[in-house]
Every structure is written in structure tokens, then in C-alpha cells.
Amino acid sequence: MADPTLLELTTGVTPSSPYYLGDGITDLLPEKLAAHRFDDLFLVCGEGVHQLLARPLARRLEAAGLPVTLLAVPEGEHHKSWAGLTDLCERLVHAGATRQSIVLALGGGMVSNLTGLAAGLLYRGIRYVDIPTTLLGLTDGTLSNKQAVNGRGGKNQFGLYHPPLLVWADVAHLRSEPLAGHRSGLVEALKNGLVHDADRFEQLAEQLTPDLRAVHDDLLGTCHAIVRSKLAILATDPTERSRAVVLEYGHTVGHAAEFLCEGLPHGVAVGIGMCAAARVGVRLGITPPDVLARQEWALGERLGLPTRLPGGCTPERVLGVIRTDNKRRSSEETRLILLDAVGEVHTGPDGDVETPVPESVLKTVLQEG
What we know:
- Catalyzes the intramolecular carbocycle formation from D-glucose-6-phosphate to 2-deoxy-scyllo-inosose (DOI).
- The chain is of the alpha/beta class and about 375 residues long.
- It contains 14 helices and 13 strands.
- A hairpin with a 2-residue loop joins strand 11 and strand 12.
- The longest helix has 18 residues.
- The chain is globular, with a radius of gyration of 20 Å.
């Protein structure tokens, strides 16, 4: 069993949320939880990990003398909704949750978002612990303190900032995740390099192959490096409202594609959105063509992922969702993160990292796909 490596989140949230990272550290979790006063623990898990991970964790907690109630929720983006949120909140209340309880979220980003938002709303906010079981959740979603559900017209339209009491990031959980999930998670890691650290992008891209052998040979080291790369961006802008907006690179088109195409993984959708943004940048004379080529090489050849919108995801439908995007400011233009170079985001004269893009340009680029 490995001792946890403790990373203190530098998001500026007070109090800060400790992030425990290690390989095979789940047996140490009861001791960390016991250091906090609570009347009950409520372990919310995705149905996909209910038998494999949630039940064994519940038994560990019970064996340590900690009370725990296990609640499974259906997975999938269509369940990250008002209906799903209402159902979970009512189940927690019915099961006896109080203001002194702690809710544990065990699963991927959808489960984390749904549970974190439920905890943030229940009795005006109770404590929760994030226990990610996907590479994307462990290296990306757990670090932003953002909880949200989808609306009828788009992703993450309703939510709040509610930091976890702590994050328990055991990379051993990732070994039960399908390979496709790891590829999806690594897209966000490549994105961190594209917007902030060219050397990190090149280093990671060279390690990647469709079978992810190098990643799996050092899963803990890889995850540690990815977490550090995002924390470096969040350090001066914890709520992602100014400079850290660069983390949204590819998300405008990516979120629309993910919302429209059921079963399209978040990271895959973001990769498609990143390539769309790069093509917009090339068309506007901002992004050099070799940046687009390098990005498509990393995503397409190294990871084996698509770089264009899937069939049936028409430009008109994508633009319709983008018009209700939770970051949109104008009805006539879309603001995108664009690149001047690998590792360098384009910045306007006023210092804004978001570039106004006429909808006609974006539509043309999407139609080319």
C-alpha cells in the first residue's frame, strides 16, 4: 500500500480542500474521515461502480465503525438533470441526512457534479467528499469546485461553487475504467498543455499511443503531472472567471456536441471542439496552420480519437445549443479561446483571452467538417 501524496489545492477557496493522491490508498480513507465530526455518511455512487467499488468501500467504512448509507444513482448525461438532482436530494432527506452529515461521491464526473450540487443545496450546504473513479474526474473535474446539472437546452446551465471537504484520489480505481475513458480523460490533459505549457503538451503527446501503455506503466506519476498542470492554471483564478477561462478551450463546441450526441464522452467531445476552435483561429489568421496540424496529430494519431463532428450532429443543431451556452455573452457572436501557438492563448488588446467570433465564421468551419 502506498502512502498518499497530499496536494493542497491552490484554488483560493477558503478553507482549501486537501487533495489526497496515491495508489491503493482507499484503506486509509476511514481514518481521514474519522478526523471530522459527523452523524452519518451517505455514499452516493454510479450504478456502474456499485458492486465493484462502492460495496467494498461501504464495508471498509463499516468495519472501521463508521455509519454509512449507500445510494446508487443512474449514470449518463441525461440523468445529470433537475429531475436527477431532485430525486437524489429527496432520497438523502428520506434516508436521514442532516446538516451534520457528510455525503461521499464515488464515480465519474456526472456523479460528482450531481452529488456535489445536491450537497451544496441540501440544508443550504452540507459537506461532501469527492472520490473520483475516472481519469477525467481525478485529474480535471475534482479540481474546479464547480457543481452543475444540465438544462433542456445545454450542459451545466444550473449550478454553484461548492468545494469538497476533501478529494480522495486513488488511481487504483482507474484500473477498472475502460480504456476509452482514459483516452477521454487525456484530452483535457493535452488541453492544459495547449493553453499553458507547450513543453508539457509535447512531452505528453509523445508518450501517448492508442493502447496507452506508457500511461498505464506509471499511472500515479501521469496523474500527478496532469493535476499539477491544471493547478498551475487555477492558482491565480480559482473560479475560472478571468485568466483561467483558458481551461474552456474547445468546450463551447465540445459541450454542444456532447449534449446532442448521447454516448459521446466528454473528453472526445472537447477534443472535437478544440479542433473546431483551431480551424476558426486559422480562418481568422490568428492560429498558425501547424498548430492545428499538431493538435490533430496528438488527438487523432496518438490517441486514436475523432477530430470532427460525428454524423447527425449538424452545424445548425450545434449552433442552436451554443446560443444557450452558460458562458455566452452576445446573441450575434460566440467568444472562443483561440491559440497563437502551442502553449500560448491569443489575447485581445484589452487583455481578454476570449476572442469574439462571428457566428457565420463558426458555422462555415462546422460545415467544412
